[in-house]
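Q: Here's a chain of 512 amino acids. Please give me its 3D structure as tokens.
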Amino acid sequence: MTKKASLNALAAALDYAARLAIGFLLTPLLVAGLGDYLFGIWKVLGSVTGYLTAASGRPTQTLKFTLANLQSSTDYQEKRRQVGSALVVWLLFCPVLLTLGGLLVWFLPQWLDVTPELVFTTRVATAVLVLQMTLLSLVDLPQAILEGENIGYKRMGLSALLVLVGGGLTALALVLKTGIVGIAITSVITTILTGLLFWRVTRSYVAWFGLARPARQALGRFVGLSGWFLIWRLVMQFMLASDSALLGIFASVELVTSYSLTKYLPETLVNFVAIVAFGIAPGLGGIIGSGDLKKAGAVRGEIQLFTWFTATVIGSLTLLWNENFLKLWVGQGYHAGMTENLLLMLMMMQFVLIRNDGNFIDLMLKPKKKVMLGVVSVFLSTGCAILLMQSLTSNIAGLCLGIIIGRLLLSFSYPLLIGQFLQTSFWQQSKQVARPAVVTSLLFLGMAQPELLRVQGVTMHFTALTDGWLQLFIGVGLSFVVITLGVFYAGLTAAQRAQMLGRVQRLVALPG
């Protein structure tokens, strides 16, 4: 299981590294080729149309978690019926998705107050993205099967190559000056190619791969789970994309550009941690399905510990070097500010820990309470963000602080739900996170010290010496070593350090 988990995590990491590299190379080209105004529109389009994935009924999510719980089963016909249920759900929700997409195509330019000459272009680009979202759940079914069977690593390298192909198509669209419409078309082409790849890989490695007509009772249960996952996807999409949309609506489209660029580094690096954790999830689903709650709790604790450790190191490095990175990457004037960067990093870290717990609850196949709490949190976050954006001098600081406050509900309630399932008290969980929380707080404040701590005679202006990529890489490398050692010894107990090192040793000792 350790071997499969490591291979799944590696495959996910390769895919994400490819997306990270493409994003790193393309973002300056997009800003230069589209301009600040059109780039801001494109970012909002991507955020808002992302909500449409929920209107597909989330059959792939339900299929993945259902198969994860059935990993030990040899009833292949039942697994085929689960795939059939997923296809039926997708067909049922297609009209809903297309209807909502049509409304979005018509009204979005008005909501964003797009200039008259760009209204038609914005509508066409939105329509193309709606088409892409409609196809997404269908072409993702083979990938859901692979991940549910805990063999997602079988596509290793091939899917990363397709990410690079998609990036090349986007660059070609920029060279040909096709605008946001051409860029949207490249996303449709990449989605179709990805679906064909996963279909071929799944057919090769999953012996039972196929469709079967689902039984009515099983279909009803599948639809019920899909309904809850649908609502949860809306919640998650709002968490992922509401910040840009709220800034665009209640502040300005131009501010979205500065915010998106400042957010780029912390978001991409912290999401890397989440993707690695998700690669381990199917194996955890098998443990939960077998009823071994003690082992499930231990694995969950390891995942959370790994997430905290990596996110703290990454967050500290981001706070220290993000401004210099942006200057070298896209130029002067795009960094939103140190306070805003700190709040962004806290928001990202809070989100990835919440998402880990949300994923665990999904694997329990008991999403109802989780989803209801998530809906409440969305309303709290939105209300607090709008209120603080209007109250504080910095719109971005108000946005981030409001979202953090609204999500505190989930930060406390999800561990309670998991504790009830694992028969672990909240007090036991709280004792485990107290020390890491203190270390993270001190490190983040230390990295933001020039504006927050103001310790006399101690500054971090040495980062201003970074005037080239080589100096930046050297500075990041040196600070990475120091911060990693500090987090390892200050944030972890002796038992936790031994556990982490032991896992690494077992992983290295695995046969090829």
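Q: Can you summarize the key feature?
A: Confidence is low (pLDDT under 50) at residues 450-462.
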